[in-house]
Design goal:
Protein name (chains A, B): Xylose repressor
Order of helices and strands of chain A: HHHEEEEEHEEEHEHEEEHHHHEHHEH
Distance between the termini of chain A: 38 Å
Function (chains A, B): Transcriptional repressor of xylose-utilizing enzymes.
Family (chains A, B): Belongs to the ROK (NagC/XylR) family.
CATH architecture of the largest domain in chain A: 2-Layer Sandwich
Shape of chain A: globular
Keywords (chains A, B): Carbohydrate metabolism, Xylose metabolism
Number of helices of chain A: 13
InterPro entries (chains A, B): ATPase_NBD (IPR043129), ROK (IPR000600), ROK_cs (IPR049874), WH-like_DNA-bd_sf (IPR036388), WH_DNA-bd_sf (IPR036390)
Strand content of chain A: 15-25%
CATH superfamily of the largest domain in chain A: ATPase, nucleotide binding domain
Oligomer: homodimer
CATH class of the largest domain in chain A: Alpha Beta
Number of domains of chain A: 3
Number of strands of chain A: 14
Chain lengths: ~400, ~400
DNA sequence: TTGTAGGTTGGTTGCTTAAACAAACTAACG
DNA sequence: CGTTAGTTTGTTTAAGCAACCAACCTACAA
């Protein structure tokens, strides 16, 4: 909403970025195509294009197909992925997951190490090592451009406000990595990154408003409205796990999270089975072996999730819902259950889909976010391809 | 998000609007002040300013106060309110409310007539008459600029999708009035207009994200995110009345609306008292006379509303909440009740305020909306003053 | 007290600059 | 030859700049 004034230089800058956006989102486009798309004069585009080319943002692919009535063939161009690269870490409860990507989001390398029970310092040491490794290996024009951390907690103003699963010991991740590597460092909530992934990769492209439910240890949601991530006043938007399951006089209602997060479910099964070694895999196995009690607990949870979903959809009327959950990925039956429950309540069609490749989604979301940032294109819609 | 390309003309146009925005939002500003605010050169501003002046958008107020160290006095300017005027109607269940406003939102005239039980055609005939009356009376530069209708129902693409209280008989309001008066005609949901009112007048100015609960016959919410009205995929965002009060296995949970809308409350009191003549005023009187059962019902409703509020706040993390309700306006005790309940659940501070002047809020919201529209400034933040 | 010089701010004017634009051109095709 | 892609060269236009005038203030001297 707050429009900024535009002088001559900002005009040029903006148009430069619009051209770059075209090149990123339509790999194998040409100058004329861009000119047509942006309603700017051919010569203007040529000028802008050449500026970008000088800065090594462009990779030319030779000639494309000419039209069927003759005429010169266009020179196809796409983003020069080797302009530079970014690194994204997911600081999980059980492990650290790391990935390095070229500017077009192509994965250069990824690693995962188990850090369960380890303090944050050890996790960050691993991250630091990974960055150094990449700096030694990856060849690119500008080198490392930026780093993103996926945090399972609440982020505000690029600071961790709340980290329920990992004790942070007042560690200032941003300061530390910015200092060491001299690149921008961004922290973002894991559910938000999942949402960004859905927006910028594959499916979500055509949806303006989507909500990504992230159901792991806790329950959160990433909210995309008007193609923009909505973070709320203090970055707490989407903390739907705290929603009440019961509105009414006895306001001491249970929160959704305390009832059907993975954590809660595992605990309930633990109690039920008097077995403290139960973990997610055990729950999955029990469900698959059609254990009656476990099935009941999970189906109950699905019903609650469906209700929560209905309430959120009712307030936001989004185009689609995504769910990012390892548990559901392993037990797709439950997705059907949720969908059916939702249908019963809503009587309305709404695309509900599982996020494919649960863990990578977050990382790629982070890759997209930091890429947007380093290009100075936070408010530009960028699409990326996910390799298969 | 979708950025449009900017050529020379659009640049000029945009800067023109930015200058106009400054003049609207800071009545009694000067060229230098604008130049400073927009970071554009003095001479550039002068040029833009003069263009606007030629188009009669500007009213000069003579000289302002000079600074205490000497120097020429600035020439103060504000929006020429008599550039033109807009008209807004509220098509209520019981009455039609009409208002005409100058471009600065100043009320020229307003009327209200009782139309309870009358068909839509009669209501619109009255509206039509009002417009003609204004066209005869109001003197302004450009005359009537646009018309806005506040609809107690769902609007999508400027069409009525759902009108629970008034039978529309397939009447195409937009077509009809656009045809007759040859100006833009906009329909918008009443709760959304309330939200716009809170955003553009008085209080809400400083909030980026706010939610306005409109509790009348039904329950709806207007959602302002990033200073922008959020309408959802099909304009159904904010239909929170449909939220479930209970998430869980028996998904046939009650909707909030069926439980504590004004309609529902009155019906419950009717049943309880075996008196079919009960209306809002009767409920108010009964509460004031401390009728036990009525108090119970209302307090119960407050508790549900507070829970609903908590859930919505949990998903959106807004800066503030507004409530627009005639019932609450008459019984401010209930607001306290809601606030207390909310506090109990949330344990967090959040500004919760009643909309003053319940009925006018919607109309002024409509005025703001249509004014934005006719100025071609839908995406510009405009502030208006409400006369006292 | 008055008058004038010096400083300050508001706004205009005329010229410069740079980016978009337009049209004519070359290149490369069917 | 017609068509399409891209470049070149020159034009237009809106922003930027610098010098200016206008209108105010204060200080201070006659």
């Amino acid at each position: 909403m707050e429009k900024e004034s535009i002088g001559r230089t900002q005009l040029r800058n903006r148009n430069l970025k619009l051209v770059l956006q075209q090149i990123i989102n339509n790999p194998g486009t040409s100058r004329v195509a861009i000119s047509h798309e942006l309603n700017l004069n051919k010569s203007t585009i040529s000028s802008l294009y050449n500026s970008l080319a000088e800065d090594h943002f462009i990779e030319e692919l030779g000639e494309g197909a000419s039209s069927n009535v003759g005429g010169r063939k266009p020179i196809m161009a796409r983003l020069n992925k080797k302009y530079g690269y970014t690194i994204t870490f997911d600081l999980g409860y059980r492990q650290v997951h790391a990935v390095a990507n070229y500017l077009n989001s192509e994965v250069i390398d990824h690693q995962e190490i188990n850090t369960k029970g380890q303090p944050i310092e050890v996790m960050l040491q691993y991250c630091s090592d990974f960055v150094k490794e990449m700096q030694g290996e990856v060849v690119s024009n500008q080198g490392l451009l930026g780093i993103c951390f996926s945090i399972h907690g609440i982020i505000n103003q690029n600071k961790i406000v709340n980290s329920p699963w990992i004790e942070m010991n007042d560690t200032d991740i941003v300061e530390q990595f910015k200092e060491t590597f001299d690149v921008p460092v961004i922290l973002e909530n894991e559910a938000n990154l999942s949402a960004i992934y859905e927006r910028d990769f594959n499916a979500g492209r055509y949806y303006h408003n989507s909500i990504t439910f992230s159901i792991h240890r806790g329950i959160g949601a990433g909210i995309i409205l008007g193609k923009r991530l909505f973070r709320g006043k203090q970055g707490e938007a989407g903390e739907i796990g705290r929603s009440l399951t019961l509105l009414g006089p006895n306001t001491a209602g249970q929160s959704v999270e305390s009832f059907c997060s993975e954590e809660a479910i595992i605990n309930r099964v633990k109690q039920l089975k008097h077995d403290d070694t139960i973990d997610r895999q055990a729950v999955v196995d029990l469900y698959r072996s059609k254990d009656h009690e476990v099935m009941r607990i999970l189906l109950q949870s699905c019903s609650v999730i469906a209700g929560l979903m209905y309430n959120v959809v009712t307030t936001l009327n989004p185009d689609a819902i995504f769910i990012n959950s390892e548990l559901l990925a392993e037990l797709p039956d439950l997705l059907t259950e949720i969908k059916d429950n939702y249908q019963d309540i809503a009587q309305e069609e709404l695309p509900i889909a599982l996020t494919k490749n649960t863990k990578f989604a977050t990382l790629l979301g982070g890759c997209s976010l930091i890429t947007h940032y380093v290009l100075g294109m936070m408010d530009y819609e960028l699409h990326f391809e996910e390799a298969n």
